[in-house]
Amino acid sequence: MKTFEELQASLGAVWSLNRPGNAVDHVVVVLPSYSVCETLLSHYATRIPALEHRYLVTSLMLHRIEGCELVFLTCQAPGRRVLDYYASLVPRRHRASTKARFRVAVVADDSPRPLAAKLLDRPDLTDALGASLAGRRAFIEPWNVTQHEVELAERLQVPIDGTPPRLWPLGFKSSGRRLFREAGVPVPPGREDIRTIDQLVLAIAEIRQQRPTATGVVVKHDNSAAGDGNAVIRFDELDGAASTDGIPARGLALPDWYLRDLASGGAVEELITGSRFTSPSVQIELSPFGEVRILATHEQILGGDSSQVYFGCRFPADSVYAPELARHGQAIGELLARRGVVGRLSVDFAAVQNDSGRWQLYALEVNLRKGGTTHPHVVLSHLVPGSYDADTGAWQAADGTPRWYCATDNLIDESWLGLTPDSVIHAVAAAGLQFNGRTGTGVVLHMLSCLAIDGRFGLTAIGRTPEQAADLYERTSAAVDRYAKQTERVVSK
Length: 493
Hints:
Layout: H1 4-8, H2 11-15, E1 26-31, H3 38-43, H4 48-53, E2 68-74, H5 80-88, H6 95-100, E3 102-106, H7 115-120, H8 123-133, E4 138-142, H9 147-156, H10 173-183, E5 190-191, H11 197-210, E6 216-221, E7 230-234, H12 247-252, H13 256-262, E8 266-270, E9 277-278, E10 280-286, E11 292-303, E12 309-315, H14 322-338, E13 343-353, E14 359-367, H15 374-383, E15 386-389, E16 394-397, E17 402-412, H16 421-430, E18 442-446, H17 451-454, E19 456-463, H18 466-492
Helix pairs in contact: 16-18
């Protein structure tokens, strides 16, 4: 039995096989294990299967990599109609082969735990999977890598295309700020390694002194995801706004769970605002050989009570600053590669336009995992093959035409609760919105199992112009809404 380190030494050879046009036999084990802290797991408990199902879109790569077999691990079986739907999106001549090389392995467990942990409790399943991989070239494609994923890799005796857990702290908010400064990338004024209310109060006071025009701060848990560990404190809400007297009371008013997690470490920094403000990100791939590749830039759509929670994205980021985003991403990626980081990651930024019209970028955090911009990029890259030009900030398809998309995991309406995946697939197709391989435009659905939970699903709307992508996005919501109302009228009769 090889150790994790020994397995990782073999990653490069099999990883190199998983490229378009390759016909050499290999296996990719997709492990969309939502491995986060208990607080986040409990928050997303009912949606965990749907979050895993976002990555069913990885099956779209099979028609481009004929030597690849894909094993998709999940705690809840996706419906046959959903699997048929994804197969229908690839060119007709490849559908039979694609279906034959895609299999789903289910761990029937609805507890609010990471999928990897559930698998470790089922030696019968891991033994069977390991036996099917024995003697074949294979690797695990994870959501992120914790000790659970490491133990699973050792049981299966295959490497992981991801960052080892010993390097996970490099993605903490405090570590990220230090990394950005080392890379020469601007960061908001602030302080790292906050663990107590007293430290928080002192840091806020320092920011107010250094930045008299600041409107507030963002407090961030070091080890958090999707903005769920962020809390905004606005200065105009503090008692005694001209001093720091009101800060302790506001700090102590933070929920107990938030203060408990803050004790493990966090950062506080100026809340970046301006007359024009955006939240772009850059998506990066670090190869097992230390190569840095800029995959994409996005404009993130944030929401929630504090406008810190990821709701969706637009691709690509504004061309005014997309090339600068890529340069910052390259510098950060090179530092991380030298430290041993591997796989997909992203870096979030704030962008604000000053009075002279110039845009200023501030790096906010590193995400050493897949995220909300990963699966939309997978959809585009395999259904409209092409490349992202980091110098211009544009996607160019193989035929030379450009593409844009709008994507979300959070298209939700309580009136859609209980709609079946099949009905939504039908509604989108009937409205003429489904992705069309001939034009390379249209809508690809995902996370359809969430309809039964809270009337939510996700989509990626691909257009030849940003306006077309936005229009497809809006028309999809309208089409599903019409279908839901028609169904309600029929039922009421």
